[in-house]
Amino acid sequence: MSNNSAKNLFIYGSLICFIALIVLTIDTMGTLDKRAPEITEKVDAGKKVWHKYDCIGCHTIFGNGSYFAPDMTKATERKPKGYLKKFLLDPRTIKPDAAMPRLGMSEEEADDLLAFLDWTSKVDTNNWPPKPVLAVATAGRGSGQGQMLFQKHDCAACHQIQGLGGTAGPDLTNVGNRRPDIDWHIRHLKDPSSVVSGSAMPAFANLTDEELKALAEYLTTLK
Amino acid sequence: MKYQSHQISLNFYTASVLLFLVQVLVGIIAALQFMWPDFFILNFNTIRTLHINALVVWLLMGMMGATYYVVTEESESELWSIPMAQFQFWATVIAVTAVVAGYIVMGLYPQANMEVFGTRLLNEGREYIEAPRWADVLIVVSVLLFLFNCFMTVLKTRKFTAVQGVLLGGLTFLALMYLPGMFYTKSMVKDQFWWWWVVHLWVEGSWEMIAAALLAFMLHKLLGADVKVLAKWMYIETGLVLFTGILGLGHHYYWIGTPKYWLWVGGFFSSLEPIPLLLMVWDAFRTTRETRAPVQNRIGLYLTVAHAIFNFVGAGLWGVIHTLPQVNKWTHGTQITTAHGHLAFYGAYVLLIVAIIYVTLPSIRNLKEFNQSRGFQSFWWMTISMVFIVLSITGAGMVQTYLERLLGLDYVTVKASYNLWFWIFRAIFGVGFLVGVLILVKDVLSLVRRPAS
Prior knowledge:
The structure holds two protein chains of two kinds. In chain A, 52% of the residues lie in helices and 4% in strands. Chain A is mostly helical. In chain A, the strands form two sheets. Chain A has a two-stranded antiparallel ribbon with strand order 1-2. Chain A has a two-stranded antiparallel sheet with strand order 3-4. The longest helix of chain A has 30 residues, at 3-32. Chain A is elongated. Chain A starts with a helix and ends with a helix. Chain B is mainly α. Chain B has helices at residues 6-33, 44-75, 82-108, 133-157, 162-176, 188-223, 227-248, 261-271, 274-291, 298-320, 325-331, 335-364, 373-407, 411-418, 420-449, and strands spanning 115-116, 119-120. In chain B, strands 1-2 form a two-stranded antiparallel sheet. The chains are: A mainly alpha, B mainly alpha. At the A-B interface, helix 1, helix 2, strand 1, strand 2 and helix 6 of A face helix 2, helix 6, helix 7, helix 8 and helix 12 of B.
């Protein structure tokens, strides 16, 4: 190959590739809004909050970012909004060992940010992040009504049992030792802050008495 | 000094290695924050912003210093305007200092990052391109002054060499690809779409063009190899870099809300990305073997070949392992990406700039002989440390992928418990890397100051 033909191959080949990229980009731009919910003013305000506090300096979103803190794409899908809001306002009062510092975010900013994260959780990301295989394999395998309810209400989104589950709320591995009283659990599930002051856990008051009792009984067996 | 213009290159090299030192110091703080988030007065996000911004800026300053040198050598003339180049250097230094001060203020008082004319005053909150819009404008002006000066030098002397063509072409492409990051979009999907244009088309497009041009220049300078043969391979390598790299951009469009066809486009083209990098390794070895010239600047050649090898290993191999969508679905957003980022930047660009400094400095300073042992010491401290840093982070990434992504353990649990040893190893080898950088900075500064022999 002569120098000239190598040069031409480089110049024209690269140009063709770049044109192909532009064509694909135009096509993609036409589809993006259809693959995501409408962007309201609140969502846009939330995106600005995301940028203002440089959230991507620690977290990732759509898997891109700093890998120092959890991915936020689907943050509002599993964790209760009430918890998330309290956490955003002052992380360490809710979770003393949280790595995230208090940023001085206002209530309005926190609401906007959660609206934005609600939006990202509904974007069609070609099924990313994938559901963990163990979670899929063990779903619905609980024995007894209490354990089924624990799964149905996704308590593991915030609580761990034997190393599996989230870290937003206390570890429940030995909760039966710490709190052997079934009535305490029932009161706590109905209205968490009435027994634990400042709790960020949502109330499960819509459960029937029978369900509350079954769930409470299950919790007391965790020893 | 053959040309007065070379003083500008020395200025850029000095600023470049000093910023490298800053980058590694904050890198160690960041590594410690993985174990103790409150370790330092500034939070991780600010430290990381400084770590990656210092990286980009010192590499760019190294490229600018090198380009001023290459253009004067190839054109056999002084720069079109030395005062303009001097101004461009100092303007860049002042702008960078202002941006860094802004990051630190924002780190201490997050509320100071207020909205001004629809953009953020101190930090845009977008990874790698955190610099606020006013700084973007200054950066563009600085790069335009730089390019204008170089192009005018080439036009003045009318010596259009292949190396200059690809080098300045790569730099122009680099300048243009900064623009897609300079507007606001309401959609986070579009935001990330354009953001990847900047980040990907820089490091896997224009920067690799610059690397190919500098590789050819260094092999000629060190070995006196035939320019025509070098130029031919440079064209082929650059062509392949762009054929695979431009559409390889698709590997960032798998999961951000973009259509499914990107899985095919990205998977196919990015799987081919290691090929031109392998070709560069072969090119470096072939040229070295064939010329059989006695090499005076051994450290320069050593670094040049090491750059080619680690470019292939870091950018090529460590990239291709997780580039297929079937794999990337599980590894995306884990420490696997961090590991790839570290080895790719080290191999492709850190070693490139260190190599070009060692190749050009002795000739700028008219040093016929110089003590090369410090250069080798620094190289081995940095390279061995970086290899172990990358192995540590790769281990962390594999554990994270398995436990968090496959089994469904919590992110924080995996990070705080299962990966603790990896963070400890990474911090220890980070200190080893710092030793290498300190030796490098000392050596480069003493070579810059040493009187001619």
